[in-house]
Model the fold of this input.
Amino acid sequence: QVQLVESGGGLVQAGGSLRLSCAASGRTFSSLYMDWYRQAPGKEREFVASINWSGGVTSYAASVKGRFTISRDNAKNTVYLQMNDLKPEDTAIYYCRASSGTLTYWGTGIQVTVSS
Done:
């Protein structure tokens, strides 16, 4: 079992920055593949970014590429999402997800609101 707790969300003006954190516990963090997803009101949950166990391989949705950066600190059991140049369309609940083989675990989500 893996427990995930997101933090760092909030309200920011367009063009601003936020850094989300996701702290994991319950399993060897360095064995987990980590992702960020988001869900805007009235929309389906969508992929934002992913990072492999070592941090050497990352992937981004086209809508955030060049603005968001995913990273991880295996010593702190934490994955981060640095979000720059935020836009109103980035407003959503952001979820952290951990994967290991066929098992996946989700955090409870954290609100990010970008005002225009």
The mean pLDDT is 96. Residues 32 and 106 are 12 Å apart (CA to CA). DSSP finds no helices and eleven strands in the chain.
